[in-house]
Description:
Elements: H1 7-22, H2 33-47, E1 54-58, H3 64-71, E2 75-80, H4 83-96, E3 101-104, E4 117-123, H5 132-142, E5 143-155, H6 161-174, H7 186-198, H8 207-216, E6 220-225, H9 229-235, H10 241-248, E7 251-258
Parallel strand pairs: 1-2, 1-4, 2-3, 4-5
Antiparallel strand pairs: 5-7, 6-7
Helix pairs in contact: 1-4, 1-7, 2-9, 6-10
Amino acid sequence: MRNNYTIRDEIQEYWSKRAATFDLQPGHEIFSQSERTAWQDLLIKHLGRGDNRKALDLACGTGVISHLMNDIGFDVTGIDWSDAMLSKARQKSSDRQTDIAFFIGDAERTGENDGSYDVIVMRHLVWTLVDPQTAFAHWFSLLKPGGKLLIVDGDFVNNSIAARLVKTLRIAFEGKHLAGPLAKSPEMQAIHQSILSQVYFSNGAKAKDIAAMLKHEGFENINVQTRLTAIHRAQSSQMGLLKFLERSIQNRYAICAVKPVVPE
C-alpha cells in the first residue's frame, strides 16, 4: 500500500481508470431518444423544468446527467474528482456547444458557497460516500431555501432472491465478463470490492436509511421513488434479456428532498 493512500484516493483512481470506456456501457451514457426522454421525465417530475435555475451535478463523470439537466433548462455546474472523466465531459460540452461549467472537486466537500444552488443532483454517488452524514449536511448548506436534492442510486448489495437468481443465470449463459472494451478486469473488480468494503454503505445503500439521514439534516418532503421502469425499459434495447431483467428488479431508486423555507 502506498504511503498516505486513502480510500478517497482509491475511489478517484478507480473512476479515472473507468473513464475510457465509461460511456460505452448501457446505463451510463444515453443511447436512444426514448431513454433520454425517460430520464428527462424523471428529472422534471422531481425538480421541474430548469427556467435557468442553478443546478449542481455531483460526481458528474462524463457529464451525462449534466447535459440532461442542461437540455431541460438548468444552468449547470458539474463537479467530479477524476480529470479523465472531466476531460470527456468538457469535450461533450464543446461538441454540443453548451455552456456547462465542469470543475474538479470532492463531492463530499465541494468548496462551493452556501446557498449557491436551486438544485443538486447525482447518480450512483451515494453508495461511494465515506462520510454521508457530513456530505448530506454540506449539500443542505449549498441549497437555497426551497431548493431540491435528487439522488438516483441503488442498494446493489442486498438484492432480492429473484435478482440474485437472474444474475446467476445471466453469468451462466452470458459469461461473467463482457467481451471487448466493456470488460471489467479481475484487477478492476478487486478494486471495486476493496472500495465497497471501506465505504459507509458497505452493507448496501438502502433508500430508507438515506431518507432517515436526510431528514436528520433538516430536509423535508422526502419522496422515495422505487420504480424506474421507464428508464429500464428504454435501456433494454442495449442489453441482453437477462441483464435487463436483473436491472429491472434490483433495488434502484430516486430520492427527492427539499430544503425548507424558514419564515422571516
